[in-house]
Amino acid sequence: MTRELYSLRSTRIAVAALCLWILTIASAFGQTAAPLPSWSDGPAKLAIVEFVRATTDKASPKFVPPEQRIATFDQDGTLWVEHPMYTQVMYCLDQVPALVKAKPELKGVEPFKTVLSGDHKAIAALPLPELEKILAATLSGMTVSEFNDQVTKWIAVAKHPRYKRLYTELVYQPMLEVLEYLRANGFKTYIVTGGGQDFVRTYSERVYGIPPEQVIGSAGGTKYGYDKNGRPTLTKEPKLLLNDNDAGKAEGIHLVIGRRPYLAFGNSTGDQQMLEYTQAGDGARLMLLVLHDDATREYAYGPANGLPPTKVGTFTEALMDEAKKKGWTVVSMKNDWRRIFPFDK
Amino acid sequence: MTRELYSLRSTRIAVAALCLWILTIASAFGQTAAPLPSWSDGPAKLAIVEFVRATTDKASPKFVPPEQRIATFDQDGTLWVEHPMYTQVMYCLDQVPALVKAKPELKGVEPFKTVLSGDHKAIAALPLPELEKILAATLSGMTVSEFNDQVTKWIAVAKHPRYKRLYTELVYQPMLEVLEYLRANGFKTYIVTGGGQDFVRTYSERVYGIPPEQVIGSAGGTKYGYDKNGRPTLTKEPKLLLNDNDAGKAEGIHLVIGRRPYLAFGNSTGDQQMLEYTQAGDGARLMLLVLHDDATREYAYGPANGLPPTKVGTFTEALMDEAKKKGWTVVSMKNDWRRIFPFDK
Lengths: 345, 345
Fold this sequence. Notes:
globular; 7 strands; homodimer; alpha/beta
């Protein structure tokens, strides 16, 4: 081999090896350029970017070791649309015909009778204790694997009454970006939802990139047993183990994670204790609330917007006062989000 | 620059870049050479190595995607010494004097009176319901952060009566190697213990490399509230949410993880349902039980060794029959482990 050839060859090897190294490093550290493209430049976006910088820069006094980087997100109204009714309640209502077919004695009994009538106004007017009867009847009694199959089937076809799209399409693009941005910076992202843990786990990985073990939600007990072939089963029981709302969110975080989050994102009074609990830790903590103030692209509702309270995600005036007093970041859908849904242009 | 120098320089760059690349790749994929050095060559070691190969080799029909790789481990008697009594029970007994000081009315009341007497035989003879009174009294009533501090202090100094070493030194070296080997191959390792979740979480990361959020254990409820400065607190309640023994292990795995493990490791009847539940999944599943048959280096106990049942980790003859029938791997401490503790030569 001539010296020229040798030199050329080793230069090529150097370049190839450097490229490989750069590619490996780049894929290991994730993309960091221009985060949160669907967020308008403003105090909310700035607060998130600055929080990530402060907690991940080793030179920062607020640096947080990677294993402690926990971020928790409410789901309904925070990650996806909760109006006019929680998606899981829609699911439960849709299960009533099959339930009554299996248990005909329920046909003439309220609240099942009203649901079967198909009278939307009467269904929407059902009081909470009546709704809870429907939830208990449609969320327990089957094995966890049967339940998983039922939800998976339903969520693949059921559509939102206004948008005529799958519920899983109605996730907020800016929030998907926050989840991705935090994960690229070493945060473990958790859902902490008042909704059913088993329900959300059926789609959380596919829709949010959040694995089932990072979904905390309201959870009933299960009972271990065996099917007719002697195969172990877990059957969903009507007994509530964790009511993952209000104080239950802080309790659920302790039960499942055992660490205090550094960032918590919610949108209603049901998230207040999760935000308080997050803020009570030392160092950098970021607490955020989504305000639904965009009647055109999504919805505007609740007392914080000067509108009457609704059955879903109550953002009260008292919560708004609390947010101001405690320095929580209020995210205006109208002003802070340039784009709402992944399908928006 | 002369051609020779240029050639030398680019060769050096090539070598440096290649080294960096190799280092990056190597650290990303973990060490794979000569796994499980403290295990004797034999069917148990072979079963583990073959399981890891089958589940991680993309060409294998039993390949498991990384996000589904879940492995669950009992703690007492599986990861560390459980004889003559569970470490957590030792902790609770040691808290009794402070408890009685705070609540003098308990001084003359059983079982606290017996514990205060210091009569080891009488303490060891306390029946389970009496022990449970001590557990309830010493594991609830304080905030989770006070409890965390108390356990952290105790475990840093309390010593095992036979080995005169910290309990956290009495972990099994072969099991630390299994945990590390599985993690290097993309498995998420969980502790699933009948012991207290909050207790084990105080040291699990340091001792086993298992973060608090991957510890499932028996768990009491907590109550959210505020201290006198208005700071949020979680107070440990005597109410049991999850009894993480027997069927409770499968139920706890569903509650916290929501996926079925591919590998489960236990040592007693309390782990039987966890192993059954693991085996009931499709594809490659590995179920293992530690048999305590080494009276010289550790302990030999239980009916599976032809010895009487003890208060800890019962490995019954029925469980041994079950293991044989179902093809579960029984790990003999005496024969399969060349070394027991990290401090052994």
